[in-house]
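Good morning C.,

I know you're traveling, so I'll keep this short. The sequence:
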Amino acid sequence: MSLKKKIKKYILKKKKLKELNTQEVVNYPRYQTSSKTICFLSAGIPTHDKDSGSNRLKEIILSFKKLGYNCILAVENVFEDNPYVQFYKDLGVIVYVENHQYSFKEFLRSIPKIDYFWLNGANTLELYSSLTKEFKKLGSKTIYDMVDLHFLRYQRAIKLEPFRISLKKDFRKYYRLETKIAPKCEYIICISDKEKELMSQFTSEDKLLVISNIHESKIELEDRLPFSERKDIFFIGSIHEPNIDAVRYLYEEIMPLVWKQSPEIKVNIVGNVNEKLDETLYSKFKFIGYQKYIQSYFQNSVMMVAPLRFGAGVKGKIGQALEYHLPVVTTDIGSEGMFLTHGENVLVANTAKDFATEILKLYHDEALWNYISQNAKEALQPFSIQKIMTTLQKF
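The tokens, ready to paste straight into the viewer:
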């Protein structure tokens, strides 16, 4: 960030703080000196209703609270009128907001004891890995949560766009962070066994733990809307490069093959991925945009599609669909790390032709739809809250 931008940001922060006149850190009086403390550092306020990574972090925070921890969420340049601050306040989490009493670092130093720092993602690691070193002499340990393996995501993206310089630059940046800086933390949280295996090349295995997404069935199988009463297919995604590419791939290469045989099939695009796309170039898609409540798409659509060609980690959107017993057509990258089996609890295709074939098959075959749907609940077992709690009790 340039000096000019830093000055402008500082001035705006002071102006906002003067308007709000915030005197103290949210919920700080609830700190219990007799309890263990974990401080979640993040480059941005987690938006649990907009992206699966933030929703996963929310569940992890709540799990630590159940274990009796003081849970602190510390994000710079966030103010008390932010709706996500209010959300975490209501959950009993101590939330750092800009205030007249403490600066960010002063607040962290004021906490009687921090047992663990939880660094949420690679950008947070870059921002705060040096800061957390200051607390090591006081007995604090650092947990780095990868969220996904960023350098792997960019490595895969480069295969699709080998001449895009920005991808190579990002690959080098995240490769350094995740293979050189991350191993200096006491623990590294991987989101799947595959990423744990990859990271074992760069650090000792005793540092590596797996905490995946957290999913549980939202409805009972018998309460789902029957196949005959459903219509349309949908994709859901945030402003994340793999999601942007997936929408383009779906529109330009997959759906033309589908529409040749079934022109009546409509496609809804849910989530703020539309903010990064020119909707006029996708006239046959219906862009819904960000929606606070998205259950109706899982409960009323014939299927969800996730034609992801690059990315890393476990895809929350796949787990969300399984929560509603909704069949999914995706790629190997989309189903990665989820213990799914093609033809049993998911349909997998890695070319546009094969993807279109699976969409058509599932859209018109009620028996297949019911078979995939009824296997969803069992597929969620590796992502139960009980499994996560067992892992967190190791700290």
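Safe travels,
E.
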